[in-house]
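>> received
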Amino acid sequence: MATVAVLGLGTMGSRIARRLLEAGNEVVVWNRTAGRAEPLVELGARAADTPAEATSVAEIVLIMVTDADALVAVTEGENGVPTGSEPATIVQMSTVGPESVRRLADALPAGFDLLDAPVLGSVAEVESGSLQILVGGDEDVLERCRPVLEALGRVVPVGPVGAGSAGKLVANAALLGTIAVVGEALSLGLRLGLSFEAAFDVLGATPLGAQAERRRPSLESGSYPPRFTLALARKDADLIEAAAEAAGADLRVGRAVDSWLDDAAAAGLSDLDYSAVLTSIVKGEIPQADREAPTS
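>> returned
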């Protein structure tokens, strides 16, 4: 088994560390708020005071932080990953976009290897080891890290460094676009006089049927427990827009999705699951009786 450092112990990072411990790895953990490491230390992890300290004792360093600024702080700041450490393999798993990954690649000293490996999936998938891990990087480096990554889910090689983050933006563009189209189609049906039940019956006959049915309980109950928060979805939508502009891609649907996410944030929904954007799209068009109906 490997000695693995996990930097960033938020919703995903803490569960990644737990999975790696369960798989028999020696795990070193660091988080800006040190108290988040305590439950993992109780399970056998070792806490480090700085990213540099964690990196100095690890063969593989997994980074799972919130955004590009946090990645820069962990890798380029005082006591950052390369500081005073022996070369290691860095596996960047955060959703930060290809430009941030290129910056990281340029910032790492000679001797460090880098994989760009953001994930598809959330809490349930990381806990069950069923994440989809989109890996960009050298094949030899990936093979060295494969046993560690496969403890977390299915490894999907997608190209060189940067391709993993590009793939994650493609996946999230589809994800966010789908939820917006479900909401708009449902809103149209209700405004045209269809009942809530009939609107879902119609959507069930379309390629969006499974996604619509998955969101139905939340629409009926008005409850959106966070798996992937709307705040993070907005951050990712901004990354998609920036990458599209840089690449010359015309994402008209993406711009519409951005506007719906902005409306939902303005309505105070940022801490809920991103699917709460449906409440902004559908607004008050779901009759109270339907909201209180039992879920199917």
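>> The beta strands are 3-7, 26-30, 46-47, 60-63, 89-92, 113-116, 119-120, 131-136, 153-159.
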